[in-house]
Design goal:
Layout: H1 2-11, H2 19-35, H3 57-61, E1 65-69, E2 73-78, E3 82-88, H4 97-110, E4 116-121, H5 127-138, E5 139-142, E6 145-148, E7 152-157
Parallel strand pairs: 1-4, 4-7
Antiparallel strand pairs: 1-2, 2-3, 5-6
Helix pairs in contact: 4-5
Length: 166
């Protein structure tokens, strides 16, 4: 009879104790949720120049705004007529974006139908500088809030500087 009792005990399924695992989850899940980094992404839509550099006649009639970002200056010009304004960088290497925005607002008043602008960058320009220039080109800060300037932005490489260096 003893052998039968032992066999019955061996064939019985054992109990699964998951209390230690549940205690771990109770502590781990809130900790992971608290330490998780939820980042907000901001996306700027850009257009790249087409395969051909030729412009249409309609574009030739209006303003073809180009902003050349150099290490020492920010040059705003029209592709057809040339340089409109040059903003030199200060000793720290930053630009007066408020003055740039004011100038772009004046340009927008003269050409209200123009929405396109091209940013041309020299090599080794920091990404944050590109973002600052893009933000300045898109909207101007006015007393009532913001005003749209040139929201359709294309990017490209800057031409060589007149001094022969790039």
């Amino acid at each position: 009879m003893r052998l039968l009792k032992r066999r019955r005990r061996v064939n019985e399924p054992g109990e699964l104790d998951i209390t230690a695992f549940m205690n771990l989850m109770v502590v781990l899940v809130p900790f992971l949720l608290i330490t998780a980094v939820f980042s907000r992404l901001a996306v700027h839509e850009l257009t790249l120049p087409g395969p051909s550099a030729e412009t249409t006649e309609a574009a030739e009639q209006g303003l073809n705004l180009e902003v050349v970002v150099r290490a020492d200056a920010l040059e705003i010009g029209d592709r057809r007529t040339g340089l409109l304004q040059r903003f030199a960088a200060d000793e720290a290497g930053s630009f007066d974006y408020a003055a740039v925005s004011d100038f772009l607002a004046q340009v927008k008043l003269r050409h209200p139908e123009t929405r396109d602008a091209t940013i041309l960058l020299e090599p080794e320009i920091e990404y944050q500088r590109l973002v600052d220039v893009m933000d300045t080109l898109r909207v101007a800060r006015v007393e009532e809030g913001t005003a749209e300037l040139f929201p359709d932005i294309s990017i490209g490489d800057a031409p060589a500087a007149k001094g022969g260096k790039r």
